[in-house]
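> forwarded from #structure-qc
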């Protein structure tokens, strides 16, 4: 939020200043930054796709129709409106989002304007934040997956294109200096799809994005990633993707910059995957100044469960301190996006995502 906590007590913990305080009196906004990480959840699971032969047109259409059915049950409009309320109230400086999704109905022409958006998470979220009284964030999206197909819509087969990826949102108070993206080489094989010359392997894309921002005398590097979910904890694939992430961070980092990493790591604190990030100099903001147990995942795929089912902490705001004297103080870290909202038809409540968000407040000296 724009009124942030001033430091009342400061301690040095692993090279990062950690303080507790209260919001009151005048504060220097240029010295403060609030960072949020949140997995928006596409609205359906993908594990069931392995049960279908995606090279068979009928089975592929049935699989995509199941995706559409689950997606409709999770009410993306209701969920994104709820997300926007939280973001407008907190007004973070920077936000890292995962599972940013769009579905577009295609008309088979060469003119993209003929296509009809069925769901555009990012555009809808940006508009909804403004409607709730928040700022117009600058959005930097990173599309990682794109797949076309057919599903049964209103009694007939309809062509569509599905896109999924990550995004970084930057408050208009900040200047954007540079951006960069990368796609990991280590990827998860989902299945086989038909191609022009025969069946082709379909890998689920993962990668990382980078945005450098500045305001006043503060410069920060923002990184965002989503490590593969469809493999066991500490799998070689997870470790390989994280190693590629660390290499990308090293290549893009400016000398002396404070770095933020927004991440759905699909790995818990103390895992080998988490260790690779911490070995690169990053600190877990929740460890520094967390409130509560910090468990972020996961709710039921249909988001209809009434009791909180989160049993793991796999979503992170990591911080790597810049060169002294620009060492940030982690004032506090807490969960957000952790409340249910009423369904559109009033028939109950729904979680905003299968993940909770993480919000970290920091202050620069």
């Amino acid at each position: 939020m724009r009124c942030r906590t001033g430091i009342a007590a400061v301690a040095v913990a692993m090279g990062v200043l950690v303080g507790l305080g209260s919001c009151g009196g005048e504060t220097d906004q240029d010295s403060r930054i609030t960072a949020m990480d949140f997995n928006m959840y596409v609205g359906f699971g993908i594990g069931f796709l392995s049960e279908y032969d995606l090279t068979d047109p009928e089975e592929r259409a049935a699989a995509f129709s199941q995706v559409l059915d689950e997606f409709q049950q999770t009410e993306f409009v209701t969920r994104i409106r709820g997300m926007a309320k939280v973001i407008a109230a907190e007004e973070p400086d920077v936000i890292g989002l995962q599972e940013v999704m769009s579905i577009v109905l295609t008309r088979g022409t060469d003119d993209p304007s003929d296509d009809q958006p069925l769901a555009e998470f990012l555009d809808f979220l940006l508009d909804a934040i403004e409607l709730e009284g928040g700022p117009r964030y600058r959005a930097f999206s990173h599309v990682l997956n794109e797949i076309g197909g057919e599903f049964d819509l209103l009694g007939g087969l309809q062509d569509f294109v599905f896109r999924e990826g990550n995004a970084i949102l930057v408050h208009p108070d900040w200047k954007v200096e540079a951006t960069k993206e990368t796609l990991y080489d280590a990827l998860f094989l989902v299945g086989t799809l038909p191609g022009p010359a025969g069946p082709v392997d379909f890998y689920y894309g993962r990668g990382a994005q980078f945005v450098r921002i500045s305001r006043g005398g503060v410069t920060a590097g923002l990184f965002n990633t989503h490590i593969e979910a469809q493999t066991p904890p500490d799998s070689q694939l997870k470790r390989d993707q994280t190693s590629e992430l660390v290499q990308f961070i090293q290549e893009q980092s400016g000398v002396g910059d404070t770095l933020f990493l927004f991440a759905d790591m699909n790995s818990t604190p103390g895992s080998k995957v988490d260790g690779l990030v911490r070995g690169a100099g990053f600190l877990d903001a929740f460890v520094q100044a967390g409130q509560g147990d910090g468990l972020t995942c996961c709710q039921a795929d249909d988001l209809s469960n009434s009791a909180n089912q989160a049993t793991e902490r796999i979503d992170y705001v990591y911080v790597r301190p810049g060169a002294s004297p620009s060492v940030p103080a982690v004032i506090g870290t807490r969960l957000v996006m952790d409340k249910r909202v009423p369904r559109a038809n009033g028939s109950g409540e729904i979680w905003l995502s299968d993940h909770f968000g993480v919000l970290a407040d920091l202050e620069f000296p």
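QC bot note: Residues 4-27 have pLDDT under 50 and may be disordered. The chain has one domain: 33-363.
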